[in-house]
Design goal:
Elements lengths: L1 H28 L10 H24 L3 H17 L3 H26 L1
Helix pairs in contact: 1-2, 1-4, 3-4
Length: 113
């Protein structure tokens, strides 16, 4: 079970870092980002910061498995997915999946102990 969590979180960390780099590319190119409109630079910067923080949490999960932080990240991303539409919704769902699975696996292993 612990090996599966490590593999899941290593993949999630790599994926979230790539998503942060894509957001930074939008920011550097001066494009509208994922939100579009006049505030596109702020939106792209916000996505880059959010993905960088989530990647940091995924890296932390490789050593310490923090149930409360995983639950908070999963719930925040799922709330974002419910509130957004289009590409941002897909990004929130993709980012929430590893944290939700880690939370479930951690809760199952703690319950078994």
């Amino acid at each position: 079970m612990a090996q599966l969590l490590r593999i899941l979180n290593a993949f999630a960390a790599a994926l979230l870092l790539v998503m942060a780099m894509v957001s930074l590319a939008f920011l550097a190119a001066g494009r509208d980002g994922f939100g579009g409109g006049a505030g596109g630079r702020w939106i792209a910067g916000g996505w880059a910061a959010a993905f960088a923080l989530l990647a940091l949490l995924a890296f932390l999960n490789l050593r310490r498995r923090l149930l409360a932080l995983n639950l908070a990240a999963a719930l925040a991303l799922l709330a974002g997915a419910a509130a957004l539409a289009g590409a941002p919704r897909l990004l929130c769902i993709a980012a929430a999946l590893p944290f939700a699975l880690t939370s479930l696996l951690l809760a199952a292993t703690r319950r078994a102990d």
